[in-house]
Amino acid sequence: MAAPVKNRDRQSASLLARQKPIETSYEEGIDRKLLKAIRQRFLDINQVRLQHTRASLSTRQQVILDILPLLFHVNHPLLPGFSSRECPYKLANYEPDEEALFAAQRYSKTFKYREEPRHSPEITGIFLMGSTGTIAHSEQSDMDVWLCHVDNLDVAALACLQTKAESISAWADELGLELHFFLMNDTAFRNRAQDNRVDSESSGSAQHFLLLDEFYRTSLYLCGKYPLWWLIPPDLEQDYATWADRLITQRFIKGEEYLDFGGLSSIPKEELVGAGLWQLYKGIDSPYKSVLKLLLNEVYAQELPEKYPLSLEFKAKMYAGVNDTVDVDPYIMIYRRLEQYLGARSEKNRLTLVRKSFYLKIGEKLTHGRRERNVSWRRVAMQALVSDWGWQNKELTYLDKRQDWRVSQVLVERKSVVSELTHCYRFISQYARQNRLKAAINVEDMNLLGRKLYAAFQRKAGKLEFINPNIAPDITEENLGFHHASSQSWSADAKGWLLYKALENAADAAYFSALKRSTSLVELITWSHYNGLLGRSTRLGLLPGTSKVTLFELRNIIESLQQHIQVPFSAVAQARYKEQPYAMQIVLFINVGMDPLERYTAMGVHKLSSRNDSLGYSSVRDNLVLTLDQVTRNSWNEVLVNRYELGDTLIQCLKNYLAQLMSRSEGQPMPELSVKCFCQSRATAIARRVEELFVDVAEAFFGATGTLNTRYIIELDRRFFAIQFFDQQPRFTGFESIQDLLVYLSQPQREYTRLKLDRYALTDYKKIRAVCAQCEPDTVQVFFYPQHEDADVYILDEKGSLFAYNTPFYDIYSLLIPLQRFLLSIQDRRQMRQDINEVWMDSEIVMNELVFDPLSNAIVPSMVAVEDRADAGNYFEVQAIGNHELNGELEFDIFCDQQEFTTMEYGDRLIPAVAHFILSRRHKGERYPCYITDLGLPHDLDQHDYQSTLQTVQYLFYKQALESALNEQIRYHPSQDNGVS
After folding, report:
1. Does residue 272 lie within any of the structural domains?
2. Exposed/middle/buried for 980, CB within 10 Å: 0-12, 13-18, 19+?
């Protein structure tokens, strides 16, 4: 059984003190005693670092360190992490010591350890790596664990082992220690077959040799097989594989003794690019820590291979003999390398940032008095470094009071950090271009890293900067003042807003710099909330100047943001970066600092009519939405603020909202929408109306099965707006009159497009509103509304186009029979154009009369049955056939009761000739209207590439034009009606 850890700790210091340089000359022969001495030297330094690790842990956390190897050596249901009896277990070369067994029995009194000699070890080694045991490790630090296993485990066994590791992590978390396990196989790693994906703890494919470099210089060997790398002298690293093979084949070492992750003869330049991007990715959330690693990456790019990487430098020191563990501390070695590099380049500002980052990373607050009898080695080492730097109490006090930093200090620090991250990004880009490199990172990982960098640092319109990426723990301000620019004595006419902090008197603003400026008050409030300046106890000040903003409104905006966009945000899941960002939360603020009825209130007018629609209020139809501020949080945790205050503000905002909805991918949820209004007049009604509109429009275009083909009509501020998507983008078209709107609605459509009206649209046009509500696919619906001597006719065709016209009215029969025959003839023509094997479905033709319903006070359709009789009335066919002439114009030949009238024969006199013929066939020359009963059009009429067949509305357009021309020649007068044709 291995010796207790405490005894080994007492031995370590003296062992290190006696070390001497090891002379290695493998060309002259390999000495087994020498190999043993080399291995022992690494084990000795390893033991000192284990002692440091234990010293940084609480008593409860030390138990985890004691029992961790045993948990993987046995597979016992009474111990933490047990998942199933099939889970791989047993550690190579491990025998639990007294402390491990004692810890296990404390956890389970009935546990008894039994050796299983027949079971082959499936766990080959356990290593801690990272900051563990270094000057950077503290009680709050997490631990990364390499759990090494044999290479013949199947998928099920690996999944079981992963489950066990996660269960042990959860147990350790309960004791206050954060563990991250990484399942490793040395053969797979050496052959670059290890499956590593980018997540919050793993760099994925971004680095292999750099990860190996870190492992060799930072890893703590707990148990199992030791790394073969220890035994290859640093000056032979270039021939690592050769010497490793010689040690193995000549049986200087046994297979059950070692793990071989491979050598570090070189680090590919391509990997430095990928690793740099990865560290930039980490730098977004941990800037000070990442500054050190980013700069180390730059140093490697500039100095390798002429100089050793740090792992070989560490190995060289071990071979040379070390009597001071501080000299081989991995983090101190990083600092020394960076100091040499930046000092040689005289880059003092960057060196200052490195020292600051290093000091904050270590976390030893040197200005805080220590009364302990035995001062920790970390504190002693840090004091020596700070003394070398020449830092005084002023610098130390500033850093030690990091928890007291507020926005002004954070902005200064962020500028320094972002400047360095930007410099590193430019260096990586330039290094890659100069060496014509591609990052050693797969495309998916590269995209993930790039997208997170974009989300964190890329500026774009409306996006707010996040100023405190773990620079200070809390930057809540006790006092914040929001001042309109016009409140300044020097800018009475100025616009925009300024944010101040901790002003005892508002007049002092002239003598202090504003924290931030913006044209939008909502942007200032959101920026303060997003960055943590606004707390529940923050006292607010307001100088509205010439604006109408009230303290009531200011407080309500803040409360709304705190309710709907809660900070801090949870971390973005990696899967989110695989998709384009989409809106998750949207808050709209209406009429901030505005009273939409101010001019009426000033006149003492409080009610103009019974019309309460906030988008067409009162008899003058005023739109009460004057300004809109939209706050959006997207799936990448970006926060954007857009202000709409000029032109059609509501339409612009709605267009942006629809574009955001369209940008979602399949399965992504609709954003959570909240609409707020705190103005002095009709605030609740305005907010409710706008929210209803946005919800209705979203439902009109986005259904459970995907995007819906819709034309949505809004009546706003005495105008009409139509919304329709083209090429995945919303298009808004405005109309000044109902006639213009009807022309738009009659346009042909690519496919069936339903008509949807806003709940307050066209309330003065009840007939059109009633017709639009009946829109259905593959149906031609005729609606007519007789009015004494004429009738309004509306036809909804099979694709949702609406054709409207007014025509003289004699009776229902004379109006509907010719129209019915015309529609049937169109169907016949379309059927003839179909492939003979294609199934043809006629569109249903439905006739309706529009009637007034007194119960609902609305116009409603009533279906009319029309029976067509061939012998009814004095009827004959009027048929028009259209052809393109040489000049490209469309000309018609007309056939009237089998009589042919061609353009070639009659030219410009065609219409008068046909009218004369029609009158000649009537008894006594009656002048009642005539109707086209059949119409032929060329297939390439409008040359739309999306049309295989012409749409009914296109036939109706030419029918109406020809009928109007003929009836103008007949000179119809209603008083002379006494028959039909």
Report:
1. no
2. buried
Checking if the pLDDT of 156 tops 80, the result is: yes
Question: Do residues 363 and 425 both lie within one domain?
Answer: yes
Confidence of residue 180 (pLDDT cuts 50, 70, 90): very high
Q: Is residue 315 domain-resident? A: no
Contact 107, 80 (CB under 8 A): yes
Boundary of a domain, candidates 257, 272, 291: 257
640 contacts 554 by C-beta, under 8 angstroms: no
Domain for residue 831, yes or no?
A: yes
- Do residues 207 and 167 share a domain? yes
- Do 292 and 438 share a domain, yes or no? yes
- Count of structural domains within the chain: 5
Burial class (CB in 10 A: 0-12, 13-18, 19+), 941: middle
401 and 252 fall within a common domain = no
In sequence order, what are the beta bridge partners of 726? 729
Which of 116-125, 811-820, 932-941 is predicted with the least confidence, judged by mean pLDDT? 932-941
Dihedrals phi, psi of 177, to nearest 5 degrees? -120, 130
Interaxial angle between packed helices 287-303 and 330-344, expressed in degrees from 0 to 180 and rounded to the nearest 10? 60
Looking at the fold, whether 497 and 643 belong to one and the same domain comes out as no
Q: Do 56 and 205 belong to one domain?
A: yes
Average pLDDT over residues 908-919: 91
CB neighbours of residue 924 within 10 Å: 9
- When the pLDDT of each residue in the chain is averaged and rounded to a whole number, the result is 87
CB 866 within 8 A of CB 782: no
d(CA 208, CA 215): 10
| pLDDT tier, 742 (very low <50, low <70, confident <90, very high otherwise) | very high
Q: 142 phi and psi, to 5 degrees? A: -90, 175
Domain assignment of residue 317, yes or no = no
Residue of 867, 863, 879 lying closest to 828 (CA atoms):
879
- Whether 421 and 368 map to the same domain: the answer is yes
pLDDT value, residue 944:
53
Claim to verify: residue 38 and residue 156 sit in the same structural domain:
yes
Structural domain including 546 reads 476-568
Other C-beta atoms within 10 Å of 491: how many? Answer: 14
Taking only the tens place, the pLDDT of each residue in 309-362 is: 999 999 999 999 877 889 999 999 999 999 999 999 999 999 999 999 999 999
In the chain, % helix, strand, coil (3-state, to 5) comes to 45, 15, 40
Residues 565, 632: Cα–Cα separation, whole Å: 9
Q: From its phi and psi, is residue 197 left (phi > 0), alpha (psi between -120 and 50) or beta?
A: beta
> What is the predicted pLDDT for the residue at 491?
60
